[in-house]
Specification:
The chain is elongated and about 100 Å long. β5 (137-144) and β6 form a beta hairpin. 56% of the residues lie in helices and 7% in strands. α7 runs antiparallel to α19 (445-469). With 483 residues, the protein is of the alpha+beta class. It has a six-stranded antiparallel beta sheet with strand order 1-4-6-5-2-3, sandwiched between helices. It has three domains: 3-200, BirA Bifunctional Protein, domain 2 (2-Layer Sandwich); 219-333 and 443-467, no CATH class; 349-427, no CATH class.
């Protein structure tokens, strides 16, 4: 690997006030329009998901993590606060490490985690080569992508307790650093073992352990959520109730176009589309390499490799969507109703005709309403609240406590017909009830799981694709460091 593609620049600063100087660097490195704000820390990644719980779109700049240290993400505010109490006198070093975009991509520097892993590997050696005590040094980095042709890492190094009076360093420091970067990138086995473990930790923790714990997260805008819900419901309503439902099965041929539309909609969500674009670019590049190596064979003309790999990703996401449908279909009808009522019974405005004359008719409806409340696992106080609203809306004259007490029964079983008849007398015919049920059914975790599982599958496929196409390509880059 040629080190000419690796541009390294470092300079020392001796400001009147070192704390102010470093603070200015932090502000520069944390500019929203320049820096990559994605999280690199598995725990902070989960924190980001939790922060979304009260927000419909994106985190604020104060919440975003533009900087990292050897310990992972650090907020801009925390980085500045860390400088409090620092001796204002002394030196700090700032610099950047830059690569041509194609070079970075082909040597595994794709996500922010890749650049973070690189710095954790090379910074200790750089600090030692500079003649500094590694236990007396703090360093920070930021990844800037505002120049598409050469993504670059900005870094800052300073001593906790000033000892250095001269900021100059030998030229060998630059040479050694570039060599360390080159050795790190060419050591594919070590590099990918680290990458695989990092992604396993992150995606595994989110999808398997923590996802259910953060059900209140709101990752999507209202429009996106409603559109995806509508697409899922329309698709599920067209699927056959029997037969093998797998993405590549014959039974799915006539439904595959609609399923692919849903998959594409998921992959183009803001939380996924950036990595999806990278993945398509890698597939395109690999297909081109195959064309160059083997010419225009039949398989290359048909873009077999590209299409096969993309089909593999789509089949994984598609099968998750189909599996969810099969789980839903396998549930007993009243079990599904119970799950719905538990979450949404308080959103239903039960109301019966006010012109019923017979008290027996009203009490019969009340008994049905009581059974519905029990299906929803409501306690006695919750049942009374439902009844109070029903009595008021229906303009009946009943004492809530007396009515509920008089109709209480251990027999709360209902057939499907009895259930729908009861709903009709409570103001919900089948069309109105099903419309509300469909509107709310996928409000919960289901559709969010599709997004997170799509991310997991995409990350895996991205990793596999990167492993195949990493080659030693050499590029020259005219680096231009601008403040």
């Amino acid at each position: 690997m040629s080190k000419s593609a690796i541009v390294f620049n470092m300079e020392y600063k001796t400001p009147k006030n070192k704390r102010v100087g470093i603070s200015k660097w932090i502000s520069y490195a944390s500019q929203k329009q320049k820096a990559d704000s994605s999280s690199i820390d598995e725990y902070n990644l989960l924190k980001d998901y939790a922060l979304f719980s009260n927000k419909d779109s994106y985190l604020t700049e104060e919440d975003e993590t533009f900087l990292w240290t050897s310990n992972g993400d650090i907020l801009k505010k925390d980085a500045i606060d860390k400088l409090n109490g620092m001796n204002d006198k002394g030196i700090f070093w700032r610099g950047f490490l830059s690569f041509p975009s194609d070079f970075a991509l082909e040597h595994g520097l794709v996500t922010k985690i890749d650049f973070y892993s690189l710095t954790n590997n090379i910074m200790p050696s750089l600090i030692v080569d500079m003649g500094l005590d590694i236990n007396n040094v703090e360093w920070m980095c930021s990844l800037h992508r505002d120049t598409p042709t050469h993504p670059h890492i900005h870094f800052c190094i300073y001593e906790k307790v000033p000892t250095k009076k001269v900021g100059q360093y030998p030229k060998s420091v630059i040479y050694n650093c570039k060599s360390n970067v080159a050795n790190y990138l060419i050591d594919n086995k070590k590099f990918y073992e680290l990458r695989d473990q990092t992604f396993t930790n992150i995606t595994g923790t989110i999808s398997k352990k923590e996802l259910n714990r953060i059900r209140s997260q709101r990752l999507f805008s209202d429009k996106y959520r409603k559109d995806l819900n509508k697409m899922l419901l329309n698709f599920y309503n067209t699927l056959p109730k029997t037969g093998r439902l797998q993405y590549n099965s014959k039974n799915m041929i006539m439904y595959k176009k609609d399923l692919n539309t849903i998959i594409e909609y998921i992959l183009l969500h803001d939380s996924v589309k950036y990595d999806y674009a990278k993945y398509l670019r890698l597939l395109e590049q690999h297909q081109k390499e195959l064309n160059d190596l083997y010419g225009q064979s039949d398989s290359n003309k048909k873009r077999k490799y590209y299409n096969d790999q993309l089909n593999r990703l789509y089949s994984k996401i598609g099968n998750e969507i189909l599996q969810n449908y099969k789980r839903y279909q396998a549930m007993d009808f009243m079990e599904r109703e119970k799950e719905f009522l538990k979450k949404h019974i308080h959103e239903l405005d039960f109301k019966s005709k006010s012109d019923y004359v017979k008290d027996d008719t009203k009490r019969s409806i009340a008994k049905d309403l009581y059974k519905i409340c029990k299906i929803a696992d409501l306690n006695n106080n919750q049942i009374k609240k439902v009844f109070q609203r029903w009595i008021k809306k229906s303009k009946y004259d009943y004492d809530v406590d007396s009515l509920v007490s008089s109709i209480s029964s251990l027999d709360n079983e209902m057939s499907i017909k009895e259930y729908y008849d009861a709903l009709k007398r409570l103001g919900y015919d089948s069309n109105r009830y099903n419309k509300i049920k469909n509107k709310n059914f996928y409000r919960e975790l289901n559709y969010k799981r599709f997004i997170n599982q799509a991310v997991n599958h995409l990350m895996y496929e991205l990793e596999q694709e990167e492993k195949q196409i990493v080659n030693e390509l050499q590029y020259e880059l005219d680096g231009d460091y601008s403040k």
